[in-house]
Amino acid sequence: MLTLYILLAGAAVVSLRLITSYFLDRKGLQQFPVPSWVAAISPFWRIYHNYHLRQFEAIHQAHLRLGSHVRISPNHISISAPEAVDTIYGHGANFLKDVWYDGGAGESRTMADTRSKAEHQAKRKRMAHLFSQKTIADMEPVIHDRVLALLRATDQQACDGSVFNVRRFVNYFTIDLITYILFGAPARCLELGHDNVRAKNARTGHIYEAPLIDSLHDSMRVAVPIGYAPDAMPLGRALVRLHPQFRSGERFTDIVYYYVTEACAKIQALPDPGNAEANSFADGGFLRQIMYDKQGCATDLPLSELLAECSGMVNAGSDTTSTALANCIYLLCMQRHVCYRDRLRAELAPVFAAAAGRLPRYEALAALPFLRACIDETLRLRPSSAFGLPREVPVGGRWIAGKFVAGGVSVSVPTYSLLHNPDVFAHPETFRPERWTDMPADDPRLVRMKKYHLPFSTGPRACIGRNIAYFEMVLVVAALVHYFDFTFADPRVDGHYEVLERLNANPDELFMYPKRRVEGSF
Which Gene3D superfamilies would you find in this protein's record (predicted)? Predict the structure, then answer.
């Protein structure tokens, strides 16, 4: 009972502070329209829409009604104007990550959630070689192995005449791949047909099985809103612990702990773990290259930092790419998009024929303009990350898209709204891959579209794994579209495929019937 009274007292103090701040308006924020009076005095407007899994849509609708600058929280201005991108996120902008990133941060910061510019630069420098073109090229056999496993799993469902959850199986593929490249061995979710993987409690040592996808999604649903109330983070963390989905976050932590500690033991048992030339990719994957530098010297990173970086990579490496894959297959299988699917298959056919029954090399598929157009249009229409990444305006304030915003205010450009801006993308609500291929390269409209097609953000904080993500998407989309026909198990889904935004804008389950259309050996 005492705990409840303390929580209520804390909530009352925070509420009084927010209301007082609103009326004092020291930062001149009352000039900006709000979607609801609640948004002006508290973070609950955002928290409400986040909890109901549609925050990006609520913000987008607010911009359509109220204009380019909208106050979505007491100290946060969402700015949908395209020219705000360079001001806020560009190189040299000096807009640091805002306090929201503290909400989900653990004992050690990851490259994604550290707010320190110097720490981010050091982490990115240490990790950059893992995402170089050479490293990605060396990973091709590993990626091929998992793509073939996905094709075998799909073919088995086709032979059985069973309904196939595309959303889940492409996620099994990305889980297998990120565990393969990060730890040196895949989780083999594709062979198992589920994502129940091993987890280990760091305190008790208890090993058990937990569903990775649901653990990750549930943990993000309760963790993301903590940062929306920066003045009440201790209170937010206390309340989250009472939520039934809090245990999911602990399960995800235990999953990462199991994989990291098992891989560390395997790496340290190698005769010369620091010798990158002598060891195969399977001997510890990326984790070994994090533990030892290019000279073979141990980096001596604490376990907490290894856990943090691996947690971030398992999250980003499994969730965002699987979202894009499910969305792309869905869009290409819609009845109204048959012409695009057929055009893509015509482009793919000679490349697969030249591969003589084998999976084509990435370099052959990456040269296909319409395949890339279908992927880029998917990322535009249904971006994996749809909300605006928050930044803090530097001291002295800045003019952003024609309006002055005071220093210390949080600002963001909502990704979904940017990618659906009709001044940049004609007919923004329509899937039109040809917008990327049917104009001359120097056409000002195409140049402008490419400038603001930023599903992976931009500037020094842009997603470091975007090249690997494209690599995966090119191979998987090409293979599934070439070898299989898919029909919706529920025809009502054709034209309405729900998005459930936790942190990433995940699509709902996607049940389809696969049918083999081309012979080939998997």
Answer: Cytochrome P450 (1.10.630.10)
